[in-house]
Amino acid sequence: MKLEILTPDRVVFTGENITLVQLPGIDGSFEIMNDHAPLIAVLKKGDIKVLTKEGSPQFFSINGGIIEVLNNNIQVLAE
């Protein structure tokens, strides 16, 4: 999968070979894995956990935002 985490100011993260993304949804935490169904969701303040095939997990703190998942491309628009 390909992941982009964007803020109004900058690109926080961009990468491929992502195996799992865990996000703080407004109704609770959820995960995105390969071949996930298309999705648009609202995010609350919390941490995004990103796992890649190459290494250990990375964490990114957000103050809320929106996620779009389509065809193994994940785009997070975060505050």
Explained architecture:
The structure is a single chain. The protein contains no helices and 7 strands. The chain has strands spanning 2-6, 11-15, 18-25, 28-33, 39-52, 58-70, 73-78. The chain is mainly beta and 79 residues long. The chain is globular, with a radius of gyration of 11 Å. It has a 7-stranded mixed β-sheet with strand order 2-1-7-6-5-3-4, with no helix packed on it. It is 0% helix and 72% strand. It has one domain: ATP Synthase, domain 1.
Summarize the structure.
By secondary structure, this protein is mainly beta. The protein has no helices and seven strands.
Helix segment count?
0
CATH superfamily: F0F1 ATP synthase delta/epsilon subunit, N-terminal
- Within the largest sheet, what's the order of strands? 2-1-7-6-5-3-4
| Order of helix and strand elements from N to C terminus | EEEEEEE
Mean pLDDT reading: 95
- Percent of residues in β-strands: over 45%
Strands, total number: 7
Give me the CATH architecture, please. Sandwich
Question: Do you know the CATH topology?
Answer: ATP Synthase, domain 1
| Estimated structural class | mainly beta
Low-pLDDT regions = none
Which word captures the global form? globular
CATH class membership: Mainly Beta
